[in-house]
Amino acid sequence: MKKLTSLLKTWEALLVVLLLVSILLGSLLSPYFLSGFNFYAVTSNIMEIAIMALPMTLIIIVGEIDLSVASVLGLASVVLGFLWQRSNSMPLAIIAALLVGLVAGYFNGVLVTRLALPSLVITIGTLALFRGLAYVVLGDQAVSNFPTAFTNFGFGTIPGTELPWSGLIFAALVLIFAVVLHFSRLGRQLYAMGNNKEAARFAGINVARIKLALFILSGLLAALAGVIFTARFSSARPDNAVGFELEVVTVVLLGGVDIFGGRGSLPGVVLATFIVAILQNILGLKNISGDIQSLAIGLLLILSVLGPNLARRIQVVVARRRLAVGSSKQV
Fold first, then answer.
1. Burial class (CB in 10 A: 0-12, 13-18, 19+), 222
2. Whole-angstrom Cα distance, residue 283 to residue 49?
3. Are 191 and 181 a contacting pair, CB within 8 Å?
4. How far apart are CA 96 and CA 71, in angstroms?
5. Residue 164 exposure: Cα atoms within 13 Å on the Cβ side
6. Cα of 9 vs its chain's centroid, Å
7. How many angstroms separate the CA atoms of 224 and 173, rounded?
8. Which residue, of 74, 206, 237, 263, has the fewest CB within 10 Å?
9. Better pLDDT: 59 or 293
């Protein structure tokens, strides 16, 4: 009973309630909300953000941040389109796009780990750098003549379901990340690094190497999101996914990951991903303008920073009062 009570007090439990409330709200506001097609729309529209949120979760847990992910997505999309246009080889274009993500992540990681520069400043700079490179590669043009098999991957669903193929990729990645973060030695090292970087070094953890690997992973999965985004819209453009970095950070922080590092869970981030997706879908079904949707995301970002910290403070106050009451009874 005590375990159940403590579980119900967690931030993840609150997110489950918010998710259920969001679903109920959507079903009341629109007759189309619970349709199979709308389920597909909700899922497919959030997948790129969801995939980029996974490595972002680990990066923020260790006390860093990567704001360049959306620009890496855009650059990977442009490189994919550029090479497809000139080589007509989709495997080559996809591999090149993923390599671009690896290089971009490595570049971020080297600047943060080798030069000891703050990741916030570095990735704000590379956000502009990578987006600028995307415009250099393709200019103001767009590539849209992709092969049918590629676009079917973006538009299509798993046979017999309304789940997009990208949802299967996301589910596999969630399983891998959950095992690593919550059931492995590396996961314990990540939390240790986020709580106290110097203590982690003294404990024998190679902090620089792990952070470099996380930034490389972030770049790779941002590029993968770029491939999926390009297939889904059948368009490679330099301005693809502009502003997605805000939504990625919102999802991670709303999921309960502490912006200062050392705290957070993957289930919370997954729950937050679908809460954001459903809220955006509801606003879209009600024909709410994009500006209002951006305002909602901004408010969610503020809530995602304040909410978990406020919940932890309440838990601390409650624990202290219980301790005080227990001590007074003993006296």
1. buried
2. 18
3. no
4. 16
5. 24
6. 24
7. 12
8. 206
9. 59
d(CA 262, CA 67) in angstroms, rounded, equals: 19
DSSP secondary structure string for all residues of 252-271: HHHTT--TTSS---HHHHHH
Kindly provide the residue ranges of all beta strands, DSSP E only, lying in 137-225, ordered along the sequence.
Answer: none
Confidence (pLDDT) at 177 = 97
Q: What is the pLDDT of residue 319?
A: 65
Query: Nearest CA to 68 among 223, 238, 245?
Result: 245
Percent of the chain with pLDDT strictly greater than 70? 90
The three-state secondary structure class of 236 is strand
CA–CA gap between residue 272 and residue 211 (Å, rounded): 24
With beta carbons less than 8 A apart as the criterion, state whether 176 and 169 touch: no
**pLDDT beyond 50 at 3:** no
The C-alpha atoms of residue 166 and residue 155 are separated, in whole angstroms, by 9
Angle, alpha carbons 251-243-231 (nearest 5°): 90
Q: At what angle do helices 165-183 and 148-155 cross, to 10 degrees?
A: 60
pLDDT at residue 330 tops 70? no
Q: Classify the phi-psi angles of 66: left when phi > 0, otherwise alpha if psi is within -120 to 50, otherwise beta.
A: beta
The fraction of the chain above a pLDDT of 90, given in percent, is 68
For 157, list phi and psi in degrees, rounded to 5.
Answer: -125, 160
Tell me which CATH code domain 10-330 carries.
Answer: 1.10.3470
* Per-residue pLDDT tens over the stretch 145-190: 899 999 988 888 888 888 999 999 999 999 999 999 999 999 999 9
Report the C-alpha gap between 63 and 251 in whole angstroms. 16
- pLDDT above 50 for 29: yes
Sign of CA dihedral 22, 25, 26, 32: positive
